[in-house]
Amino acid sequence: MTKYILMVLAGAVSFGILSSFVKIAYQQGYSPAEISFSQAFTGALLLWLLARIVSPGFSVRSVGRRQIAALLGTGATIGLATFYYYVSVHYIPASLAIVLLMQFTWMGLLFDWLFFRKRPSLMEAGISAVIIGGTVLAGNLWGNTDFHVSWTGIFYVLLASVLYAGYIVANSRAGKHMPNLTKSAWIMTGSALAIGLVNLPSLATESHLGFALGQWALFLALFGTVIPPVLFAKGIPHVGAGISGILMTAELPVAVITAHFLLGEQLTTTQLIGIVIMLGAIIAMNRYRVRKVKPVAAN
User: Can you give the residue ranges of the EamA domain (predicted)?
Assistant: First the structure.
């Protein structure tokens, strides 16, 4: 169980470093549609190439159309979550956006309860509350009296949070008997298709397509659409949707720390306290989950 927990955490860390680099790309004139679509499209190509190398004998016929449709739908959720999150940071501060995105933690547990009757334990609910409190501190919102924020940005990031939670639940149940790279390739194909369809008019008229954008696409694809999905595809089915949602909150402290060192953004004592609270809660949940699973494995 420990190695699967580490896989989910590593995927979250990979996601966490992206926002700083995306902000740099925005400074160079690229749009959320260009960045998110090129990232997903390049990632899908890389995953299909790796899938053919690692599992050359795998046949799609052994899976069925329903499974493929489920994987494409799973990809659509993470693709649109990424796109709408990228859009939101144009309207609201990055610290507020990441804090609101972290609401997928309790949303994942709620979805598991509502749709699959998997009621969260008191421990899971309590740790979720602690993590949510930690995100408020880590986002530097404690004592902030400036409420002049864009409701458009808040809408987009909350929409991204709902889609992110749906992705976690869907990924934990779709394509369980498929090779991980092939599963990830189908998911990223769905991601690229969804982002492309939503942004078709703007992408058709963009003038930034070229080698420079390709460099950004390759870098962001590796850390945003290749490494995390592969790790999530392997780890989430073993860890479970609810716990995975909690583990993936590691994206927040990583994003804050990366922004501090790469972009020179302020990192206050309050934020550090919030990060410590979150990491402590995540570690506590890991220990709880491992102790809970060990007796079952012994039987």
Answer: 3-137, 152-286
Query: Can you tell me which residue has the tokens 């949940």?
Result: 285
Nearest to 282 by CA among 123, 168, 166: 123
Between CA 116 and CA 104 the distance in angstroms is: 17
Say what the pLDDT of residue 296 is: 45
CB burial of residue 296 (10 Å; 0-12, 13-18, 19+): exposed
Dihedral of alpha carbons 106, 107, 109, 113, sign: positive
What are the CA-CA distances from residue 28 to residues 23, 31, 38, 203, 259 (Å)? Answer: 9, 9, 15, 17, 17
Alpha-carbon distances, residue 298 vs 198, 291, 292 (angstroms): 49, 11, 11
262 with 20: CB under 8 angstroms? yes
Q: Is the pTM of this model over 0.70?
A: yes
Q: What is the pLDDT of residues 159-189, one digit of tens each?
A: 998 888 888 777 766 666 777 788 888 889 9
* In the chain, where the domains are located: 2-298
Q: Position of tokens 């302020």?
A: 266
**Dihedral sign for Cα atoms in the order 30, 36, 41, 45:** positive
